[in-house]
Write a structure and sequence with these properties.
Largest sheet: 3 strands, antiparallel
Structural class: mainly alpha
InterPro entries: Tscrpt_reg_HTH_GntR (IPR000524), WH-like_DNA-bd_sf (IPR036388), WH_DNA-bd_sf (IPR036390)
Number of strands: 3
CATH class of the largest domain: Mainly Alpha
Order of helices and strands: HEHHEEHHH
Organism: Paraglaciecola arctica BSs20135
Number of helices: 6
Keywords: DNA-binding, Transcription, Transcription regulation
Helix content: 55-70%
Distance between the termini: 45 Å
Protein name: GntR family transcriptional regulator
Number of domains: 2
Strand order of the largest sheet: 1-3-2
CATH superfamily of the largest domain: Winged helix-like DNA-binding domain superfamily/Winged helix DNA-binding domain
Oligomer: single chain
GO molecular function: DNA binding; DNA-binding transcription factor activity
CATH topology of the largest domain: Arc Repressor Mutant, subunit A
CATH architecture of the largest domain: Orthogonal Bundle
Strand content: 5-15%
C-alpha cells in the first residue's frame, strides 16, 4: 500500500489518509488481518505529525476499517471492506436535516436550535 499526501490539497491530511486506506481496503490492496504501520512509523514515512496519523487511525477504528490490538499493533478489520461503504458524514447530515426540519415544523427558531445545540454539546 502506497500513501501519497498532497500538502497543497485543500482536503486535510488526516482525511487524505482515511480515504487512501479505505481505497486500499476496497481495492483489495490490503486484506483483513494485514498489519498497518504504527502511528509513529507512518508519520515518519509521510513526514507528517503523528497526531495527524493518530486522528486518521482513530476515525478508521471508529468506522471498523481497522482495529487496534494493543501492543501487538493495528490491523485491517475482518469486516473492513463492507465497512468502507459506510459514509458516517452522509448519515449524520441526514439525521441533522430530519431533526432540523422537525424543529422548524414545531416553530423552533434557528437561533434557539444553535443555543440549545451548543448547550447540549457543552453538557449544560
Amino acid at each position: 500500500m502506497q500513501i501519497i499526501i498532497d500538502i497543497d490539497d485543500p482536503v486535510p491530511i488526516f482525511s487524505q489518509l482515511v480515504e487512501q486506506i479505505k481505497q486500499a481496503v476496497a481495492g483489495e490492496k490490503i486484506q483483513p488481518g494485514d498489519p498497518l504501520p504504527s502511528i509513529r512509523q507512518l508519520a515518519n514515512d509521510l513526514d507528517v505529525n503523528s497526531k495527524t496519523v493518530a486522528k486518521a487511525y482513530k476515525l478508521l477504528e471508529r468506522d471498523a476499517v481497522i482495529q487496534s490490538r494493543g501492543y501487538r499493533g493495528t490491523f485491517v478489520h475482518p469486516e473492513a471492506k463492507d465497512n468502507c461503504q459506510i459514509d458516517i458524514k452522509a448519515w449524520a447530515t441526514s439525521q441533522f436535516e430530519e431533526f432540523i426540519l422537525a424543529m422548524r415544523d414545531a416553530g423552533v427558531t434557528d437561533s434557539e436550535m444553535r443555543i440549545t445545540f451548543n448547550n447540549v454539546l457543552n453538557g449544560k
